[in-house]
Amino acid sequence: MKDQYHFPLENFITKERFDRIKAFAKDKETPCLIIDLDIIRKNYEDLRKNLPFAKIFYAVKANPDDAVVSLLRDLGSNFDVATRYELDQLLRLGISPDRMSFGNTIKKEKDIAYFYEKGVRLYVTDSITDLDKLSRAAPGSKVFFRLLTEGLGADWPLSKKFGSHPDLARQLIKTAVRFGLEPYGISFHPGSQQRDVGQWSTALTTVSQLFTWARDDLKVNLKMINMGGGFPANYIEPTDSLAQYADDIKRFLDNGFKNDWPEEIIIEPGRSMAGDSGVIVSEIINIAKKSVHERYPWVFLDVGKFGGLIETLDEAIKYPIYFEGEGPAVDVILAGPTCDSMDILYEKTTYMMPESARIGDRVYILTTGAYTQSYSSIYFNGFPPLKSYILK
Amino acid sequence: MKDQYHFPLENFITKERFDRIKAFAKDKETPCLIIDLDIIRKNYEDLRKNLPFAKIFYAVKANPDDAVVSLLRDLGSNFDVATRYELDQLLRLGISPDRMSFGNTIKKEKDIAYFYEKGVRLYVTDSITDLDKLSRAAPGSKVFFRLLTEGLGADWPLSKKFGSHPDLARQLIKTAVRFGLEPYGISFHPGSQQRDVGQWSTALTTVSQLFTWARDDLKVNLKMINMGGGFPANYIEPTDSLAQYADDIKRFLDNGFKNDWPEEIIIEPGRSMAGDSGVIVSEIINIAKKSVHERYPWVFLDVGKFGGLIETLDEAIKYPIYFEGEGPAVDVILAGPTCDSMDILYEKTTYMMPESARIGDRVYILTTGAYTQSYSSIYFNGFPPLKSYILK
Fold first, then answer.
1. Nearest chain A Cα to B171, which residue?
2. pTM reported for the whole predicted model
3. Which CATH superfamily is domain A9-34+275-390 in?
């Protein structure tokens, strides 16, 4: 007899809070996402406490719900903005443009002009062609240069899509000066859900060398480090505590900058801010076998890859999943409700379901507050996008 | 010097038609999808001509645009329906329920009841638990049994998500009788964009054996074969002609059934009906290098995996892509506009871009009429879903 859970529920959520969510969702149609704002408040405070030297720019894309953004506005957060659509949302919510950065390296010139017109003066860049647009559309603005990091050890890995190698970063700094922009800092991203804190050590070592080069060779005083996101949420794979991450990162900064840390240190949490705040409430549609004797039954849920769980691609993100009922459990394969054969959640990762579970039972997918609802397809197979509620 | 294209444009679209689409899209904001209904009409007629013995059930999920569905309604098509949301759409468009099947093996009992109440009497199944629901919610209906096929050779491969092995199919047929349902036929799906026609041979061999078993051992006369979809659209990887597929499939049917073919043969084309009808019009946002000397520049388009091109996952579907301009071309990496590092279109597959291409140029992604627009995320990174237009 195996237990259905890899870890006790308390690793992810208190029993009291879970019971409140279940009660709140009781009369709601499934699937739906329930967001608990108290958790976001707590995560914001934990980040402030553990990294008091860092300015928080919340990565809006992680969960752009108005209620989430408004709460973080009131808590004093700044915002990492990916598109003009997000900019419009933030302005509508009364957030001042000096609390924003345009954090996407891929920008149309007309979108840069739009950000500039609205008052945003802080931009990421990673290419000469992008600097060229910035020089015309956002003259005199602060720019920071994103380094290429590959994010080994991250559950949602990076690629070579963003950033430049250090040699090109030197060129970009020189070019920014020539273009009348203000070279302001260096950014990197260690990879989302990065479980190897050593990645910050490697990146910060490169950053400190770039600060030295900029000062000594280019006569440019950089003032800022943007360490990106990457701090983990609580999925099934265990991670170190935020306090441990913070301690290590402080040491890496001391290694590189001694007592002369840069004026401004920015972090861009998304997953670590919003992930733990959400629970997707789903229902078992079917429990099926492919043969008369089948070791692993297929359990079909009413939410899948196209309804908000796209990060189960390659089983990258392993959400904690709780069924109703207790007692002896069996290994299962979990899949979504669409007619697409790739809409399978977990086939290789071991998930267990109590033998007593039945069709129609509710299923709770924890730590689904980030990178879920806004990824939903608009109507693939006719399914509407995942509905979300703020827990009251 | 290499040519930018793997194949001449005429493999995918006539120059005249392409020029019309470009002219129509000229004043439209990018990205957008342009659908040419004439192509869908032609594809429908080609399928009828080449497979005159087959009843067409269009797979609505491939492209659920009202204009597409209405055209196929007028041409006399039947419809493979995945969800009650699609059912509602088809009823709204005045399509009679006797022209529909509920083609998803994963169904809630209340959804079956909804289909039954609306008059649908043809249902797929692949498990005892699903039959149990059908017996209660759709009493006396025709059911067909989906076989498990794994779809080797398909560009968008199957998995073990759908269908049952033959031994279980026998049990399902017996159970259907016991439950008062009408065992009507056998279905399989060879895998989407299936380039190996031999897959139909393997599946039809199993189907013919099941017909024999049903008749001899179970005293059940099955009447229908549903051969699913799988017929290809024109992507970069070449495929046999539809005529060749049709010839081979007729021979496979003769092998299994001699002169006594089943009464009804159904196909469920989706990709082969709608794929070639669409062109996504996009724009180059940036052309960037990661190092001072970079062999393969990164070309960022304003459409990507979350804006309708999710089937570029693992570079499975290789769309023909045409740039403005001519002349010497370079190998490029193509990526989408979001802040997600996995939003890369093609990094391993060779795509070429004329050296003369510039930021702001338009880019045309052909054969994007199926499994694109309806997959778009609702607002990931704030981007709105892909807009689509019917070519006038």
1. A292
2. 0.95
3. Lyase, Ornithine Decarboxylase; Chain A, domain 1 (2.40.37.10)
